[in-house]
Amino acid sequence: MNAVEIKKDIHWIGAVDWDRRNFHGYSLSPKGTTYNAFLIKDQKNTIVDTVAAECAGQFLCNASQVTDLSNIAYIVVNHVEPDHSGALPRLVAACKPEKIICSVMGEKALKEYYDTEGWPLHAVKSGDSISIGSRTLHFLETRMLHWPDSMMTYVAEDKLLISSDAFGQNYATAERFADQVDQAELFKEAARYYANIVLPFSSVTLKILDAVKSMKLDIDMIAPDHGLIWRGGLVSRILSDYRQYAIQKPANKAVVFFDTMWRSTEQMAHAVAEGLFQAGTPVAVMSLKSNHHSDVMEEVFHSGAVLAGSATHNNGVLPSVAAMIAYMKGLKPQNKVAAAFGSYGWSGEALKDVSDALAAMHCQVIEGVRARNKPTHDQLKACVELGRTVSLALQDKIAAWS
Ligand code: FEO
Description:
Strand order of the largest sheet: 1-2-7-8-9-10-11
Mean pLDDT: 97
CATH architecture of the largest domain: 4-Layer Sandwich
Radius of gyration: 24 Å
Number of strands: 24
Number of domains: 2
Helix content: 25-40%
CATH class of the largest domain: Alpha Beta
Distance between the termini: 47 Å
Largest sheet: 7 strands, mixed
Shape: elongated
Bound molecules: MU-OXO-diiron
Low-confidence stretches: none
């Protein structure tokens, strides 16, 4: 896609990666992603962020549509992760900038990723600013949102916050603005992105939202490094949604994920789901044979209750369930009611292993159900009862919250 002017003399010059499907285990659904970068034309022409190395050609071509690369004076690196800095070596070689501006942690990371000999690195801290002519760039460090080096750049004269990964969506489109696409799909992608990337940093997110509020920044556009740019009324909507995402208030919704060997645990999963539904909790049932862990995580994020089923396999948990639990543990979801269930042949360790893992994630764990070989009618009734018990515990938790 070509360069697009998003504000007077501020141009999107990023790249659309229609084919990207995976970021270190996070499946992007069929949407691909974009790597957003921006060129601000002023006395000191400035590029904020770059793109993944494999998209450097598209990015440099877009920048060249706006100005000759030799006219670029400053480069701002809000975030060193290679999807945003991969094209930096080619850009630096092409434009020989006066300054490469990054956070202190960004400077360290750049030196570890690239041969920075001779690069004019210039580290900034929160509160620092740099004039580029008629505009001043203000920097806000956002450590651990979501890497130690992360920062945002605010252009006060244009009421523009360039927010790095925060507020992004992995969503490849020809459009550049959030108001130009289907809103339900857009906000689904924004939440999915939060669930799979930002969730473990929710406490940092709340602090940064508070900092932005207390600084009384006048913002009418938020330009993240992935996906669509928020403008108009959607700015306050995404700020508000991020606060809700980060608070993680439990919702009356449940997900039952499981894997099964000979369908016994599958029968138990459906019985548990029936109990949840009977007691008033909407539920999604997700076999790990059919669903990617990113899709399950999206449901976990939206659900106040998580029920995990595994048959016992080699005295432990089935590998797919172990992988799902490891993925979920890393993303640190909060305020969940949880329970385990599953079948076994002779030893039956999976129930305790899964229950212990859920407790280690600070879930409120309800005692689960296991069944030897094939669940009996009474054991399936116990699974239905487990679903009902979890639903009632969740409803109590929600009531106690408000
Ligand atoms: Fe989009 Fe943290 O990189």
